[in-house]
Amino acid sequence: MSAGKIVLVVLGLLIAGGVIIGLWGAGIYNRLVSLQQGTDAAWAQVQNVYQRRADLIPNLVNTVSGAANFERTTLNEVVEARASVGKVAVPTGAAPTDPQQLAQFERAQAQLSSALSRLLVVVERYPDLKATTAFRDLQAQLEGTENRIAVERGRFNEAVQAYNTAIRRFPAAIIAGMFGHHPRPYFVATEGADKPPPVNFDFSKKAPAVEGRP
């Protein structure tokens, strides 16, 4: 075989190898992008259900405040906790990358959950209020929203786990480092925070206490 043909063969092998490596790298990159988008989508759902709860609170406060002699302190705690949630700056288009930012968001939401729990326990003392259609509808919607919050938080953590695992595995870790893929934080709040707070909608029973919550 002539030297020219040898050179062509070598060049062909190099080009073929380069194409294979390029396709392999592109496949890894695309998978990481898909997993990253999965965390963003899961985060959007978390925000949706938390926003749904926040949207229900003004109606709840208005309904409850109409009851004669209702405890204003408890109502004010709910209003203030909702306002505190709104002051926490969190990403809207992508999942948080700062653990402290996510922890601050979680603390604010936990305070709101606690305030709502106390409010609905206080309502037990007002049978006429509990009997109204408006209040029964709101309590049903809140209960459903709390359940959805627990579900979406769990799905978010699952999406983050899949993403974080992928970017740490070899050889994907090389591609991840080159294109700025970094680990994302989980919800790691007080034990039991991934479950609905103890909002007792059966007012014939006492709401159970949860360790770490007020």
Instruction: State Rg.
Output: 26 Å
Helix count equals 6
> What is the mean predicted local confidence, pLDDT?
82
Distance between the termini: 84 Å
Q: Which geometry do the CA atoms define?
A: rod-shaped
Helix content: over 70%
Into which percentage range does the β-strand content fall?
under 5%
Order of helices and strands: HHHHHH
**Count of β-strands:** 0
> Oligomeric state of the chains?
single chain
Uncertain parts: 197-214
In this structure, how is the largest beta sheet organized? none
Question: What attributes does this structure have?
Answer:
mainly alpha; disordered C terminus; single chain; 214 residues
Task: Describe the protein in words.
The chain is mostly helical and 214 residues long. It contains 6 helices and no strands. Helix 1 runs antiparallel to helix 2, helix 1 runs antiparallel to helix 5 and helix 2 runs antiparallel to helix 3.
Please write out the topology.
Blueprint: H1 3-65, H2 72-87, H3 99-122, H4 127-130, H5 133-168, H6 172-178
Helix pairs in contact: 1-2, 1-5, 2-3
